[in-house]
Design brief:
Elements lengths: L5 H11 L14 H16 L25 H13 L5 H24 L2 H12 L3 H4 L5 H21 L3 H21 L4 H7 L19 H23 L10 H10 L1 H12 L1 H17 L3 H21 L1 H5 L8 H13 L4 H17 L17 H6 L7 E4 L6 H6 L2 E4 L2 H6 L1 H6 L2 E7 L21 E5 L7
Parallel strand pairs: 1-2, 1-3
Antiparallel strand pairs: 3-4
Helix pairs in contact: 1-4, 1-5, 2-3, 3-4, 4-5, 4-7, 5-16, 5-17, 7-8, 7-9, 8-10, 9-14, 11-14, 12-13, 13-16, 13-17, 14-16
Length: about 475
């Protein structure tokens, strides 16, 4: 039956995520993170295209070069823009394409490792999990995980061939794909750890272990980027923005303080409550049925998640996207519970309930509120009073989103910070201040600045000598 073909469902949910995909990143959830990805991509597009020196816009009078994840997603967006012209939403489409391809790769892997129907239900649950919205956001999290899944699939396919040449080339390409996934976002290593227990099933004898030789230089590249190059960029160019973890001691202490909130990422955000209930039941059933390989995969992935959580500390608590690499393994256990239900109609009912609950929790992300759209006019408003190369200041606190839509470089500060450092900002070359009216987390306006409900919801103050009173 065609409805049992997972490819149909992968295509169906890809089409659903095309709804409003052309919108710029103005949704409430993580517009700031998407804006930083777009800043780097736009700077690549406008030149110079230098992967080793990614550049953001909110570094004030500095160059903007800073340490971050390897900017592969940003570079793909810039390359796409050179072919089709610049648009914010192209990054969404790129992530969606890679995510959809990864769903097929995951199904193909699990079909070999466990069972075809079990693999299909795992993919259906994963598509409607927390992955649903993040697989259309301009962020490297699902993108990096997709590369790891696709690379693992390619590695398995290369092992299945008879030609030694195809094994060598396939293993090399697979290793490069996995390494690019780890470079794009290091927590994708959680997913790779969870995949390792499945790999011996595709290794009929020890002679195939030579394929892992390709991972040695790849691992060295990942270590070099995160341990040496990122700190070098931060130290030499003087600007730090992207979070790269903290000490294990501090992270563990912060995590222990807010462990209830962190736990809700798994209990609530990943699969919602029905899905989590099936996940817990799946762990028990997997143990009782002796599925040691699957349990080992879950354990390895969970240990990887714990390490990432401790390194992230309160940042893990505040952001649910850190659990994305673990969600596929939760989906495997959840799908196993459904497989053990004896009656087909009840199996289908529980599967649909898990999927619908996941979708219902994320529908709001497709329709950002209309009051957010005003920020899209900020660039044209600034063009009337300033030059694109002018440095500006915006009272949007730490959020770089308004600065991205202003298409300027400069500072993002609170109103109090702006007033206390006004003369220093002028000395550093700031020409205008954009005062947002209680939007985009701008915080309270300084004393003497009256809140206005007029449109546009901002005022532009010139700092140029000729315009001062």
């Amino acid at each position: 039956m065609p409805f049992r073909d997972v490819r149909l469902w992968i295509l169906f949910f890809a089409i659903i995520r095309l709804v409003n995909i052309t919108l710029p990143p103005i949704e409430v959830g993580h517009n700031w993170r998407q804006s930083t990805v777009l800043m780097v991509a736009r700077n690549f597009f406008e030149g110079p295209f230098d992967l080793m020196h990614p550049k953001v816009d909110m570094a004030g009078d500095l160059s903007g070069i800073t340490g971050m994840e390897f900017p592969l997603l940003n570079a793909l967006h810039a390359g796409w823009a050179h072919l089709f012209g610049w648009s914010d939403w192209h990054g969404r489409l790129i992530v969606l394409i890679f995510s959809s391809l990864a769903m097929w790769s995951l199904f193909s892997l699990l079909r070999r490792a466990i069972d075809r129907r079990w693999a299909r239900d795992t993919v259906l649950i994963l598509i409607t999990s927390l992955w649903f919205i993040y697989s259309r956001k301009i962020m490297p999290d699902v993108f990096s995980c997709s590369l790891v899944i696709m690379g693992t699939h390619l590695l398995v396919i290369s092992w299945e061939t008879e030609s030694r040449t195809q094994k060598v080339i396939g293993s090399l390409l697979a290793s490069c794909t996995i390494v690019l996934g780890l470079l794009s976002k290091l927590p994708a290593g959680i997913l790779l750890l969870g995949m390792l227990p499945f790999l011996p099933k595709f290794l009929p004898n020890q002679r195939h272990l030579w394929t892992f030789v390709w991972f040695i230089p790849g691992t060295a590249v990942v270590v070099y980027w995160y341990q040496f190059w990122v700190p070098h960029l931060v130290a030499d160019y003087g600007f730090w923005h992207f979070f790269m973890g903290k000490s294990m001691g501090i992270g563990a202490q912060e995590l222990a303080t807010h462990w209830q909130i962190a736990a809700m990422h798994i209990i609530d955000h990943a699969l919602k409550f029905t899905g989590f209930g099936c996940f817990v039941a799946g762990l028990v059933l997997l143990f009782r049925n002796g599925h040691r390989r699957v349990l080992m995969a879950l354990l390895c992935a969970f240990l990887g998640l714990v390490i990432v959580a401790i390194k992230a500390g309160d940042t893990f608590v505040r952001h649910d996207y850190y659990i994305l690499p673990f969600v596929p393994f939760m989906a495997i256990a959840t799908a196993f519970t459904i497989q053990k239900i004896p009656l087909r109609r009840w199996r289908l009912a529980i599967l649909v309930l898990v999927m619908l609950e996941g979708l219902a929790n994320q529908a709001h992300d497709f329709f950002p509120s209309s009051d957010q759209r005003a920020i899209l006019r900020l660039e044209s408003a600034l063009d009337r009073v300033s030059h694109p190369d002018d440095l500006i200041v915006i009272n949007c606190g730490p959020s770089p989103t308004p600065l991205y839509f202003a298409h300027r470089k400069g500072w993002v500060l609170s109103g109090i910070e702006i007033e206390s450092s006004r003369q220093e900002l002028i000395r550093k070359g700031a020409t205008h201040i954009v005062w947002l009216q209680q939007s985009w987390k701008s915080g309270p306006l300084p004393e003497g600045r009256v809140q206005s409900s007029a449109d546009p919801p901002w005022s532009i103050e010139s700092l140029l000598p000729s315009a001062q009173d």
